[in-house]
Amino acid sequence: MDTGRNSGNPGGPAPTRVPPGGSPEPLTVRSPGRAGRFAFAPDTGRLHMDNAALAVFDVSPAEWTGDVNLLLERLLPGDAERLGELIARAVSRGRSGYGAYLRLRGRDGSIRWVHSRGGIRRDRRGRVRWIIGVVRDAGTAPLHPPEAGRADAEPAEMWDRDPETAVGVTEEAVAALARARSVRDVVDLLRVRGGMDRLGVIGLTLGLVEAGRIHVVAEGREGAGPVPELLYTRVDEAFPMSEAVRTHAPLFIVGREEFAARYPRLWSYIASMPMTAAAYLPLVARDRVIGVIGLLYREKQHFTARERNFLVVFAGGIAQSLQSAMLIERDHELAADLQKTMLPRSLPSVRGLRVAARYRPARVGRDVGGDWYDAIPLPGGRLAAVVGDVQGHDTHAAAVMGQLRTVLRAYAAEGHEPGAVVQRASAFLRDLDTDRFATCVYADVDPGTGWLRMVRAGHVQPLVRRADGTWRRLSVAGSLPLGLSTDLARPEHPVVTLELGPGESLLMYTDGLVERPGVDPEEGVELLLDALGAPSSTRDADPGAGDGAPRTDAPLSAPPPGDVEELADRLCESGGDSTDDIALLVLHRDADATSAPARTACLRVPVGDPVALSRARRSAREVALSAGSGTECADAVETVTGELVANALLHTSGAALLSVRVLGSGTPRRRLRVEVEDRSSAPPRRRAAREGAISGRGLLLVDLLADDWGTESRGDGKLVWCEFGCLPEDGSGGTC
Questions:
Q1: Residue 315: alpha-carbon gap to chain centroid
Q2: What does residue 155 show for φ and ψ, rounded to 5 degrees?
Q3: Rg (CA), the chain
Q4: At what angle do helices 305-341 and 395-413 cross, to 10 degrees?
Q5: Sign of torsion, CA 279 283 288 291?
Q6: Residue 507: CB partners within 8 Å, gap ≥ 6?
Q7: How far is CA 120 from CA 94, 177, 189, 281, in A?
Q8: HEC assignment per residue over 584-635
Q9: Neighbouring residues of 663: CB distance < 8 A, sequence distance ≥ 6
Q10: φ, ψ for residue 720 (rounded to 5)?
Q11: Cα distances (Å, whole numbers) of residue 612 to 391, 426, 617, 660
Q12: pLDDT value of position 374
């Protein structure tokens, strides 16, 4: 360590301050007895000691070479290490100072107490620039030594020997409490950073006044836990906390005999503690007692007038912090309740799927957020699932979220395909009187086939948990967030078709689940999986997703893959930090579902291409036959397919899109579905064909040959579908 030499002021200590980047100036010393000043610069290692400070350490100015070891060698074994630990702890915890008693061996061999008190000065960036303070000779009077193993312990009667340090401890506790955001913060700060042990406190109890009762929310006693019988007590009962609440006045008790005589019922619980005094302070805010704090002391013989006054001030600081924290908690609960009223009260039951959802509001702040989830039952046993996030954290974001959720549900229920649902919702948000945008991921799920038709509008990528417990990230093509796309006539939200296998779970979530301060979102996903019990992941190619995706190589031990409720709970507990909301939706496809693909047909039929029309009819027939249908059923499928494609080409502009697949695989109700999509929004109309006419009978044939048929809107077009129930029970379905 580099040390500097400072001759100081032989006449005694003078005021000290440190200008930014400069040398220390004098610091006012108020402690009684022989005392001197010091200043230490951690960046340079320079230590300045004046003559008075050197005299406290029994070192003459001629001996002082600037070597700090010369001072440390005079301390008794262990005290130097204890002082270093205390200063390091004060710096790391953001404290403004420290105080400690040290044992010093003089030239004559006598042992004296030295009190060191320092202030920590930081620059604008929070870096420690100077530690300046005083050292005082506390004399050879027998003091209670600091307890072994407690680096910051102080003598019990600090208010008698060093009232300045006691005041500093109390002020530090009040300053820390001012930052509390919840009742739990108040409790933790009192226990951890309040410094009560440095004042000789061995037991602390905090109670809140609720409807004529005192609810103990925190109790810390050496060697004992909370007493269940005393968690709730009436204000009119014979307890010291009750008396402090009734009288609105602090209560000070000195002596074990006095305590036992006045409160025998409570004494039976604390008689084993080495307490000698107690203080019970009502917490008064706005002329109303909102709580009470009880302090139990060791080896305390009296309360000085100054100590009583400061304890009353200390209680006032606790009361203000506690009331502020209670108001913040109440506002936060109201915001969370408002958010929950805008989310689904229950989730639909869909055969072949297990669904779980969670919403966790931000644990800091009092604003409501714009995160949401929804699950919408669709025809044919399908389910639409959506998770989204509106920009901002305020009531306006919540209001926009509520409208968007309603719009998405309405468009999905109308039968629009996923791209059209999202595009229409985006146009709605664009035309809304708001400057907010939103992100979302939307999935149309068919549990029978495992089909996932997904749209991702500026949202985070979903995750899939495989049946073996490992994870992969899907690669769903993205588009602009809702409210930023404008053209209804041109598709702007691509639909990606994937397959959710038997026993697999789809996780859709908002960014609050994986975002942490200073952590990249990609790394946030890895941290989330690590918290769930999965090992570090490697990247593999996700078949069906396209791009590379991270995967965990070992299975997740818990929760079991099929337990979606436990999985959702674990995700909420493990994900993100407390600064953002979290909404998530888990969809699990039953493990006993069968999804071995059968022959499917997905093709585009252009205008004016008779060969393509013939190929479309033939493809539909082949799918029906591969699914196990008879010749009669295959003939019907071929005929109806030809009619639907021909109608689309004849009565609309542009090509037709044909999809033929099997639904309900592995169930007794297997059926073949034919879909033809075109660019006209006009619904098909059944006409009465004149005798001898060669057209006008298409829909009549569809109605006669298909078991069911209908139309669905598709943005600027439509989809005409029909289903055939002439397939045998065995067999399997497929996807395009």
A1: 32
A2: -60, 150
A3: 38
A4: 20
A5: negative
A6: 462, 463, 464, 465, 571, 584, 585, 586
A7: 9, 19, 20, 31
A8: EEEEEECCCCCCCCCCCEEEEECCCCHHHHHHHHHHHHHHHHHCCCCHHHHH
A9: 380, 446, 448, 449, 670, 671, 672, 673, 723, 733
A10: -105, 125
A11: 47, 35, 9, 15
A12: 94
Exposure pattern of 609-632 as b/e (b: 16+ CB <10 Å)?
Answer: eeebbeebbebbbbbbbbbbbeee
Reported residue count of the chain is 736
Q: Could you tell me if 646 and 712 are in contact, meaning their C-beta atoms sit under 8 angstroms apart?
A: no
pTM above 0.70, yes or no: no
Q: Which residues contact 135 (CB under 8 A, 6 or more apart)?
A: 35, 36, 38, 53, 56, 57, 114, 115, 116, 117
Eight-state DSSP code of residue 409: H
Largest alpha-carbon pair distance within the chain?
132
Q: What residues contact 231, with CB distance under 8 A and at least 6 apart? A: 215, 216
What confidence score (pLDDT) does residue 79 get?
Answer: 80
> What average pLDDT values come out for the chain (736 residues) when binned by 10 residues?
38 38 37 69 80 86 81 82 82 79 80 82 82 77 37 44 58 63 70 58 86 83 62 90 91 91 88 89 88 88 83 83 80 70 84 90 65 88 92 82 91 84 90 88 88 90 88 87 70 80 91 79 79 52 40 45 82 75 91 60 79 85 84 91 88 83 75 88 69 60 90 80 84 45
Closest CA to 442 of 506, 514, 513: 506
β-bridge mates for residue 551, sequence order? 472, 538
693 Cβ contact list (under 8 Å, min separation 6): none
CB 416 within 8 A of CB 715: yes
User: What is the three-state SS of 498-551?
Assistant: EECCCCCEEEEECHHHCCECCECHHHHHHHHHHHCCCCCEEEEECCCCCCEEEE
Structure confidence at residue 650 (pLDDT): 83
Map out the domains of the chain with their CATH numbers.
35-153 (3.30.450.20), 171-335 (3.30.450.40), 349-589 (3.60.40.10), 601-724 (3.30.565.10)
Rounded to whole angstroms, how far apart are CA atoms 483 and 486?
8
What angle do the packed helices 418-431 and 395-413 form, to 10 degrees?
Answer: 140
The answer to whether the CB of 245 falls within 8 A of the CB of 282 is: yes
Using DSSP's 3-state secondary structure scheme, residue 644 falls into helix
> What pLDDT does 724 receive?
93
Residue 527: how many other CB atoms lie within 10 Å: 15
Please say whether the beta carbons of 279 and 251 come within 8 A: yes
What are the tokens at 555?
Answer: 């299975």
- The answer to whether the bond into 226 is cis (omega within 30° of 0) is no
State the Cα–Cα distance between residues 239 and 456, nearest whole angstrom: 62
Quick count: other Cβ atoms within 10 Å of Cβ 671?
21
- Give me the pLDDT at residue 309, please: 82
- Judge whether 595 and 665 are in contact, CB under 8 Å: yes
CA 299 to chain centre: 44
> According to DSSP H, which parts of 114-162 are helical?
158-161
To which H or E segment does residue 333 belong? Answer: helix 305-341
Integer CA distances (angstroms), 732 to 405, 445, 598, 666, in order: 35, 17, 6, 6
Closest CA to 476 of 494, 491, 451, 490: 494
Residues 6+ apart with CB under 8 A from 476: 441, 454, 455, 456, 461, 462, 496, 498, 545
Q: CA-to-CA distance for 568 and 285, rounded, in angstroms?
A: 41
